[in-house]
Amino acid sequence: MKRMHLVLLALVSAGCASQQANRGAEPPAASTAQASTGTLPGCAGPGTRIERPPDFPAAFPLPPGAVMTSEERRSGGRLILHTLAPSDAKAVARFLERELPAAGFRLTGGESEPGEAEAHYEGSGYVGRWKVQDVDGCPGAVSLDVLVAPAGS
Length: 153
What we know:
The chain is an alpha+beta fold.
């Protein structure tokens, strides 16, 4: 279990390090300041905001400043929650790797590429997957999509 977390962290770190090398510079200071204050940059333009769906696990942690923008209903009781957050993919992946186990969920595998990361999880009567991606052309903003389904569905 610990080895899988280390592998996931290594993949996320390597992917994001490659992305920074390809960009040739750190994100602008404004995006760092926005992430630390939990404010989405204007370029993220969340538009519609929704409330947390009642059947989305209350214990599932979302990054600070996350804005829920839409939901999708799928067969088998599956729900996909779409969010935007003031951060970068690497930071959100680290947040979820730390906070999901603390909330009673277990990471069961994952991978990353430059600017994105994803993993499967289970626990608290649910199974699912999350995927975080940097928002193109909008430093300091990510999209985070969370699929959740009742365990055994």
